[in-house]
Input
Amino acid sequence: MRFSSLFAPTLREVSADVELTGHKLLLRAGYIRQLAAGVYSFLPLGWRVLRRVEQIVRDEMDAAGAQELLLPTLHPQEIWAESGREARMQDVLLATKDRKGGIFYLGPTHEEVITDLVRKNIKSYRELPLTLYQIQTKFRDEPRPRGGLVRTREFIMKDAYSFDRDEAGLNKVYERMHAAYLKIFQQCGLDITPVAASGGAIGGKETVEFMLLTDAGEDSILICPECGYAANQEIADFKTVSNTDTEASAAIATVATPDAHTVQQVCDFLNTKAEKLLKTLIYMADGKPVAALVHGDRELNEGRFRVLIGANTLEMATPEQILAATGGPVGFSGPVGLKIPIYADEELRGMKNFITGGNAVNTHLTNVNWENVTSEITWARLRFATAGDSCACCGTGFTERRGMELGHIFKLAYSISEPLHAIFADEDGSDKTVIMGCYGIGVSRILAAVAEVSNDVNGIIWPKSIAPYQVVLIVANTTNEEQLALGEKLYAQLQAAGIDVLFDDRAERAGVKFKDADLIGIPTQVVVGKLAGENQVEFRDRTTKSSEVISADEVVGRV
Amino acid sequence: MRFSSLFAPTLREVSADVELTGHKLLLRAGYIRQLAAGVYSFLPLGWRVLRRVEQIVRDEMDAAGAQELLLPTLHPQEIWAESGREARMQDVLLATKDRKGGIFYLGPTHEEVITDLVRKNIKSYRELPLTLYQIQTKFRDEPRPRGGLVRTREFIMKDAYSFDRDEAGLNKVYERMHAAYLKIFQQCGLDITPVAASGGAIGGKETVEFMLLTDAGEDSILICPECGYAANQEIADFKTVSNTDTEASAAIATVATPDAHTVQQVCDFLNTKAEKLLKTLIYMADGKPVAALVHGDRELNEGRFRVLIGANTLEMATPEQILAATGGPVGFSGPVGLKIPIYADEELRGMKNFITGGNAVNTHLTNVNWENVTSEITWARLRFATAGDSCACCGTGFTERRGMELGHIFKLAYSISEPLHAIFADEDGSDKTVIMGCYGIGVSRILAAVAEVSNDVNGIIWPKSIAPYQVVLIVANTTNEEQLALGEKLYAQLQAAGIDVLFDDRAERAGVKFKDADLIGIPTQVVVGKLAGENQVEFRDRTTKSSEVISADEVVGRV
Output
């Protein structure tokens, strides 16, 4: 490809609201452009990288025995209702209505559609096991698109689904996929940490996320430096240490706390610390109010809480709902006198003389003790793990890192196949439900991930495996006939050798071309400059910045 | 690939409402499955063919100097409003609303989005010409999905867009695309006829459709056997012959025609022929009533009529609208006394003593003459050309064929770039509007087309260029160790030689395997049977049905 014809509009600057390094670089180097929030175009360079990533994914999926197909984007509403996930994923589902009023969801994931396909076309155990995959555009109505390709509303995903006779079969393919994923990320030049995770709305009983540890990540990962246990904060298992306050119960008292809505405001007002406060959070679980209690300095693990109470939807209550459920306004809720189901974090057991909201305007209670709470309390682990919590395996204190999720594998088991009645006749003639797994990779997110972690001050540094071109061939001065002639000769030679080469034949200053080459990040640079007359060129490595003068005759061999 | 693991569920029978041969075969042979009306899954075999077609398209596009990219499916409503096509294409646009109420259309075509990309990233004539393309899933709310992959609501299209400084540039790329298209279809084994066509809602001033002539086609194509002129019925140019009735005008009369709504019923009732009848069709053009008059035995060319009157939308009037516009019910409209704009087909000039509706219940008028019509009449060509009409070029009578549209190229000129203000600074420093072309190929429809025309009573016959596998290797009797061993050996040899081979190792009767091989339609069949002991196999050609016994050692070379 000649750079003079390439559609790769580079930019000196990008909008100030672009935060991540990788996002900035992909915009500046002309790989992507935003059409709307979380909706991107892949320009020719971006598309080339995407296709190389896809090919790595495809090769490993094929090697792992998976078969590629392509499922539709338009999913009839009925099938999402049948699986029961229409309600659970309503939040992110994008819908469209056809001219007859039929509702279709834009596929955010394809468990329903593929299970429907398989249940209609598989009759016998002889046709199992079966693993199918596709590389396809998905749609999710993300509340907060961010980081360029990191979190988008339209993105390219590889999604695989396995169908087996029994758990042993599922375990086998799950392990095979786990291994394939590690190979894929390694080939893309990414150092990935597999972590235990939550199934979320996808469901399933065992699941691993493949995390790139980077400050640009959206997830908190807790890692045990001793035993190596690594888990997403939302699922990380730790040793609960309950309060063991020894002080005697004091007398409960009502105090006026005008305009003190937040934990900090209450602490300031009462001159105390957050750990003496008990946060009472009111949620609507499938439309009914419930209370969750955690220490004033802890965060509720909403996902865990939702699963614990068995709710399809869980939303923070509105001020009106809080008033109706507690009798008081937002910021003044507490467990004393509360008539709705109460769930308390295990850590709170044994806590003495704490402070809670008073379920009335500008009112808190001090010296509250559990005997003051007359409703039944369900004790459970409700809070997130944080750095310093003790690893459940070995007791060592966790360290906390940020992680970007690039892959996710799930043992779905029967969570989809059961509601969809995906059955087969087993060897003994009995009807059995097929057991499933699903396996996703964020293909477009991989671009963002590599650009985020593989760069320097001058631009992106693509690994050879996924670079848009293997080599960029730069003629320093295109008005110099000797240079141009040697450049054209090398361009022809490299093309003839089947090498993907970007030929910078533009009538720009050499400095501009060098800057663009660094920005775009092709791993090898060949510069035809002043030594052209001696049939010599400069051979540069984008990563190491090493440079050497070699004979032009050696170029093809070296590349 | 081993057939025993392949997900290719074949069917003996398909639903009775499946009409087209190709559709039946793609279902029966396990290439596709329907999820909803006009929404299909591509199973592994179908996906393989699709990818081979895509690669042919990609190679020719690249060779023609086009650059591949990938644009989003979610199109902000604003950009469709800006181009003015939101109203014109409303009919087929599928919309979705995000959580903030923003409306997005699911891309049915990408002129707006790519022009937006180019206008924001191109400044100078130095960056032109530019041709960009993508291979992507499109969405259209088709009123009548049909023929399996022929007309779907979700389909794969290659769409290219060219941006040039001037008309000479556009003409050059248009010719290059025309030539590339012919090569693409030829490589897919399709005999294509380019025909002049209408731009339709896409717009543009010159456009050619690439038609496969087949009875399964949806379009009528008129072909001049003398000069070779070929055009879609909607645009075909012919010599208008106006009526030259010589009889004297008779006295207009009102006749009761109870329950005679249709042309046929009126003819039967009045004992006359359709050509004596004048059909008065009432339409709503952008919401206002208009009348179109054609001979009783002619069809109105709605597309031509819409363009003629400059309407964005044109719909048949409802019974209520007809009553309001004419004073009479459906089936009894006529031009006499009509107060809405009247357009009459040129052919009707000179017609005498004709029959029209009376704009009243159960009433027609006989012996109507043009002097009875007091409103102003606009004369124009309103009817479709049909077989027998005279070619405008050479006067020869047309023949009529059915055609399936597989590709379409348009000179858009400024129809999109002007409303979107896609400008560039020309060499003299002045601002100019970029001139555009667009070029589409129905990638998924090509599968349907090939299956429709390349088959026999036993199944599909894929051309080698796009077959899912190059060869199917069949072990006639897998319980015979000699046969199985030779099969495995050949399978390994073929794979090692880089040949895409489907190895039928299933424990089925030989007859089942032969039938499936014919149905699936892989061009070459190698059968390991009774001669395995002598190291001999049967080498069969799916197309010619020729078969010969060759040494197993020759197989790789022959394939």
About this structure: The longest helix of chain B spans residues 167-187.
